[in-house]
What does this fold into?
Amino acid sequence: MRVAFHHIAYQPLAVCNALSMERLVATAGLAGLKPGARVMDIGCAYGEVSIHLARAFGARVTAVELDPVMAEGTEARIKAAGLSDRIAVRQETSAAALAAQPPFDLIVAIGSTEPAGKGLREPAAVFAALAEHLTPGGALLWGDLFWKEEPPTPLRQLVETGGFYVSHDEWQAAARTAGLEIVSAEISGDFEWAAYRTGMETAIAGWLDANPDHADAPSVAATASRVKMMFDFGAPYLGFGHYLFRKS
It folds into this structure.
């Protein structure tokens, strides 16, 4: 199977974004989860967030990951953690997983691509669609990039290839429009950005050094270069926000 940038870059990361696991778990704690609470982790990557939530809150987690390589990696990590009885992995789209399950007490979407369904990117519409799959009083733990100020058009085009981003205040306004209460709204610090970027860059550099003749090495290197350029150029414009929204 083809080796992609994210298969390598995300392996060492607890959270595959500019967010520490400690802060994520602390924010999730504001949801008031009780043992046995039902949680969906959308775009779970290698499953570390699912594992930590299951351990910290005694939650029963549905971990959703469309990428087969990462879904397989998630299964392996869950088994190694001894949590196969509490975390179920679904290799499918989040829309399919949501449609097949009863409402959740917490939905986690951290840097997820189109978590409410293909083609749905407008923030208020995304939040409203996800809220339909929450229990009364359930919560949405959302994390994503935001624009600190209006970016140059080329940067916006590059960054928004796989998503749609607004300002920190606009994420919160969209949640209110969707009928959600804002419980928490925070911005990641420089140390979280540094850990995220360093983790990815170190993993990629190590893999390229060990696999210089791999057929996928050129594409991995090209993607790594593009991601670095995006974050270097985008540093004055990009922030990462993490939010807990509650359904009334």
